[in-house]
Amino acid sequence: MFNDPQDCGHGITRIDVHYIRPGLACCYLVVEQGRAVLIETGPQLAVPRLLKVLEQKNIARENVVAVLVTHVHLDHAGGAGLLLQHLPNAQLYVHPKGAKHLIDPAKLKASAITVYGEERFLQTLGGLTPIPANRVVTPKDEDTFLLMGREFQFLHTPGHAIHHQVVWDRTSRGIFSGDALGISYRECDGPKGRFLFPATTPVQFDPKNSLESIDRLLALKPERLHLTHFDSIPFDSNLMVDLKQQLEAYSELAWGIRADTLPDKDDRLLDGIKELSWQRLQAIGSPLNKDQSTELLSMDWGINVQGLNHWLNRLEQSLT
Ligand SMILES: [Zn+2]
Question: For an engineered disulfide with 202, which of 11, 37, 280, 310 has Cβ 3.0 to 4.6 Å away?
Fold first, then answer.
């Protein structure tokens, strides 16, 4: 349904990492005068695909100077360790709070195996490779690095996770937003707009931090969003207003049924999220019917329910 890899202008190429299905997760290759930076890696399973794109574009592996990741969730950074073994001159840029988990991925691996089971972990993600500490750079908030002669600024954006950062690329006036500015699948696009929704993933999601991070990024007045899920899209402030409304609505829904002891509590939260999504899909004239949208979005909805529950548990613990 779309070209891959896709030229996004300003030396940026979007590469589908084929995590779970095409069109779900991507990374970006930024090229300047024969040198390159990769932003996000996808899971380890995606590494051969990324190396193939470098080859197709005649970029020597030695000329990749950096790999930047927005956070250490495995659909974003799972491939970093193996990738670095193939890119002898690249440094990895990761949030200071995430670095230790990529240097020694034992904890990340154990939690992925808890979620997926060992067999599916290997099938879906392809394993995890440690990264030597001397190849890791941990940008502070607002640090700017000149890579290939092009400025990349790192902004710490907690909310989706405490180890989340985004990359602000002044050249494209684009934000490589990871999961800080939501998820938007191209299958949902309708004649009246796009559907973009929050990623309230376990285990560190926090709505207040999320909203603050969004406002901070809006102040940059970006022109493009280079989303990991999925694709590079023109910036639209209405989508951001709506993202904030959804975050508030999700949290209110979760808060409203927090004390409920009925066993179908999670189903009711899921139904609420589903309804909020369905209203928006209809409003933009999305080509997806109810069943198709459920098929496309149910995994994310389920993850969002889990993340909201984690947030509520933390909140309740802090109140007692
Ligand atoms: Zn993600």
Answer: 310
Cα(98) to ligand 1 centroid in Å equals 15
Count of positions (residues) in the chain: 320
**What is the structure's pLDDT at 316?**
85
Count of domains observed in the chain: 2
* pLDDT (average), residues 49-66: 98
Q: How far is the CA of 75 from the centre of ligand 1 (A)?
A: 6
Q: How far apart are CA 2 and CA 21, in angstroms?
A: 13
CA of 261 to the centre of ligand 1 (A): 31
Model confidence at 2: pLDDT above 80 = no
Expressed in angstroms and rounded, the spacing between residue 182 Cα and the centre of ligand 1 is 9
**pLDDT given at position 111:** 87
Q: Per the domain annotation, does 110 fall within a domain?
A: yes
C-alpha 94 – ligand 1 centre gap (Å): 15
223-269, pLDDT tens digit by residue? 999 999 999 999 999 999 999 999 999 999 999 988 777 778 899 99
What is the CA(196)–ligand 1 centre distance, in A? 14
Domain limit, last residue, from 93, 113, 146: 146
> For ligand 1, a single-atom ion, which residues have Cβ within 5 Å?
75, 179
133 and 180 part of one domain: no
The per-residue pLDDT for 265 is 86
1 confidence band (pLDDT: 50, 70, 90): low
Number of C-beta neighbours around residue 53 at 10 A: 17
How remote is the CA of residue 18 from the centroid of ligand 1, in Å? 13
Q: State which of 82, 117, 146 marks the end of a domain.
A: 146
15 with 138, same domain: the answer is yes
Q: Which domain holds residue 80?
A: 1-146
How many angstroms is it from 295 CA to the middle of ligand 1? Answer: 18
